[in-house]
Amino acid sequence: MIPNNAAVDPYTPETNYFECLDCSRRTTSDKRLATCGECGGQLRNIAVPRE
After folding, report:
1. In 10 A of CB 5, how many CB atoms?
2. Residues 6 or more apart from 12 whose CB is under 8 A from it?
3. Taking Cα atoms as reference points, which of 31, 30, 27 lies closest to residue 43?
4. Taking residues 5-26, what's their average pLDDT?
5. Is the full-model pTM beyond 0.70?
6. DUF7129 domain: from which residue to which, for each copy (predicted)?
7. In what order do the strands lie in the sheet with 16-20?
């Protein structure tokens, strides 16, 4: 068992991870984003809580 899983899984709920559905560009933000800054496509939040 590994104490402190942060070394294995860097997921932090304070940071949102977004991926563009059109160009697949990924970005992080502390705010909720809706459109890609590169192509203007729709973003989806890929930060999924893990067990």
Report:
1. 11
2. none
3. 27
4. 77
5. no
6. 8-51
7. 26-29, 16-20, 43-45
